[in-house]
Amino acid sequence: MSQTDKPGQIVILNGTPRAGKSSIVTVIQNTFEGVWMNLGVDRFMKMTPERYQPGIGLRPGGERPDLEPLIVSLYQAMYESFASHSRLGINVVVDVGHHDQYSIPRRILPNCAQILIGLPVLFVGVRCPIEVIMERRIATWNAGYADDGSVPKPVMLWQQAVHVPGIYDMELDTSVISSEACADMIRRRLKEGPPSSAFQRIAEMITD
User: Fold this and answer.
1) What is the CATH number of the domain that holds 96?
2) What are the tens digits of pLDDT across the range 24-33?
């Protein structure tokens, strides 16, 4: 397939760890028409050498000035991969946890959005209340509340930072909507519209 054919659709799911993004990705891959490649953060972290971990998975507040310039480049490389797949007519579904809580602002999201200008991108905010996130963390990792009963600071930072600036084409709350229903809502949005505009607006932030 040449680059002159119809570009593949890109669906980007943004949210905290344990918000339910990967479950939605699985449903999309298994039920949507055509080929949908999963090129999310976890896949790229697994390809990253151990000495550069956590790579693009670096959490908010986990400042690593020595690693952050590489993280910027890794994000750019990941998004260039999305663009390459799309230009070849291959659909891409992605789960990420964007934030800008580094040692200095890195503006990774608007810079990455510029890479995808001209390509069809649906940007989806995957939300989940902190109480449900904690339940899932306990069920998955047996890692729960702090000794004083509070939500651990890293978990709270994720919850606060991941949805900034909060510009999405659509938002889903996985505490009340199943993965299958979330995927169906995405399918209907892609089919019926309105046209996506979130990534275009985010890309324009880089010149603000």
Assistant:
1) 3.40.50.300
2) 999 999 999 9
